[in-house]
């Protein structure tokens, strides 16, 4: 597949990293020579120093033979213009990053299709969805629903109360048990576990289960004492915070702390009257106490500074808040945030790149999520009639190393799989991939 990425900034660079793992034919266009030099040095791709809206540069990049054109520069106007031009010059599919939430409304999609923009990415909305999912279950680091919740993947930090530590997985997660452990993050290592592996204290474990058994999972991992989130405090009033507040469930009460008085005025105009906006510094412990931090179940730090967000979450934890969420846009700080036990880490650039990455898989893929904390993908594959994965039970198929199947949805019913499971064409199959050539995975389903 030939892919052109316009914009060698955070999203484009991270996307190049994801794609370079699969040896895709990638061309990166940007007018910043320093950005291109850094990316070209680290990843296997071709770079062109030029404006992404240059007709000459697009033709030089071979846009007429391009399968996917992705515009992720900081300029919304440049992205939309570049996509329209790329489409007119022959690109099969185009994707544009935007900054205006109006553009992602369903009624706007036909307009953009007419001018040659196939897909719109609004990173702040994608990040807000991740944040809300995290707040709905205070004891879970990450949640991912398959087919409207027919299957659910839960990322959970294991503490002393966990009842299934230090036991071989074959004893606690067999064919008859209502969950599978599909991945483990231990210190800085990712493990795709086998039957002899065990769960250890402070592991971040990823469980695949069905919605009915979420309470059971909560019990065995010792998280029953965690209270549901009703009061939320958000530090930082940027666009991600606005999207999160506007999509927050009605039963949650939210306060937004913002340092800039002018931005506070804007927020008061954007929010309903029941949303409280406070002018102050979210790191000020006296302010936090005054605003009820001791009665708050979740603290969300969404300023533009990763260090500030990490420190604020640590402060909130010391003051008794169980659920903390930190926006960490600097990739260099992600591992540090995880090791400090911050809680849920949100990186809207990685989320956006993962969303675009979904479009690049050749198989019939309905959804894909890149799990930054374990450097792995979890995806919904739909096998076609006669594909290799449907010919034999799973135990008799040579599955690539680094791939594991978490479960499947048949009709509307979610089910876990065992070695004896026979996958059928049309099933929605949840596949976990770590350090594996995606082409080998795709061939199983095509």
From TrEMBL:
Residues 141-223, 366-446 form the RCK C-terminal domain. InterPro entries: K_uptake_TrkA, NAD(P)-bd_dom_sf, RCK_C, RCK_C_sf, RCK_N, Trk_Ktr_HKT_K-transport. Coiled coil: none annotated. Pfam families: TrkA_C, TrkA_N. Keywords: Ion transport, NAD, Potassium, Potassium transport, Transport. Gene3D superfamilies: NAD(P)-binding Rossmann-like Domain, Regulator of K+ conductance, C-terminal domain. SUPFAM superfamilies: NAD(P)-binding Rossmann-fold domains, TrkA C-terminal domain-like. GO terms for cellular component: plasma membrane. GO terms for molecular function: potassium ion transmembrane transporter activity. It comes from the Bacteria. PROSITE patterns: RCK_C (PS51202), RCK_N (PS51201). The keyword Kinase does not apply. Residues 1-115, 229-346 form the RCK N-terminal domain. This is Trk system potassium uptake protein TrkA. It comes from Prevotella micans F0438.
